[in-house]
Amino acid sequence: MPKDAPLSPALIDTTRLAEALEAFADARNWAQFHSPKNLTMALTGETGELSEIFQWMTEEQSITAAQTPETAQAVRDELADVLMYLVRLADVLGVDLDEAVQEKLKRNGEKYPVDKAHNTSKKYDQL
């Protein structure tokens, strides 16, 4: 599909965030450190920090972690870090996240048709 032909109306628009992150990095002369490898490693680290918040919670505790005073700010902070590194990585790589998401949702719909995937956690090759 041509890059300029959207699949449907945008699901997400990260343009302003990508611009803000680029300006933030440029003001600090950090673009030199923002290789895809480094950004992927930073993203992995932030995902690990998010996981650490939930590590020893019960399923019930995890459901309210973003509202519980002891963990709410940390959850918000780590989610923001994950999003910022993901958007920065996509921007550096020239990946249109909206297009990528729409294409992936379409492929997932094909791999997991409702009539076979409804109410099961089986992987697509086991449906």
Explained architecture:
- The protein is built from six helices and no strands.
- 61% of the residues lie in helices and 0% in strands.
- It starts with 14 loop residues before the first helix and ends in a 10-residue tail after the last helix.
- The radius of gyration is 18 Å and the shape is globular.
- It is mainly alpha-helical and 127 residues long.
- The protein has a domain of 66 residues: MazG-like (Helix Hairpins, Orthogonal Bundle), CATH 1.10.287.
- 8% of the residues are buried.
- Helix 1 packs across helix 4 and helix 2 runs antiparallel to helix 4.
Outline of the structure:
The protein is built from six helices and no strands. By secondary structure, it is mainly alpha-helical.
Helix content: 55-70%
The number of E-state strands comes to 0
Q: What proportion of the residues form beta strands (DSSP E)?
A: under 5%
Total number of helices: 6
> Mean of the pLDDT scores?
94
Return the CATH architecture of the domain at 35-100: Orthogonal Bundle
The chain-level structural class is: mainly alpha
CATH homologous superfamily caption of the domain at 35-100: MazG-like
Cα-based radius of gyration, to the nearest Å: 18 Å
Poorly predicted ranges (pLDDT <50, ≥5 residues)? Answer: none
Distance between the termini: 29 Å
- The succession of helices and strands, N to C, reads HHHHHH
Provide the CATH topology of the domain at 35-100: Helix Hairpins
Specify the CATH class of the domain at 35-100: Mainly Alpha
The biggest beta sheet reads: none
| Shape verdict | globular
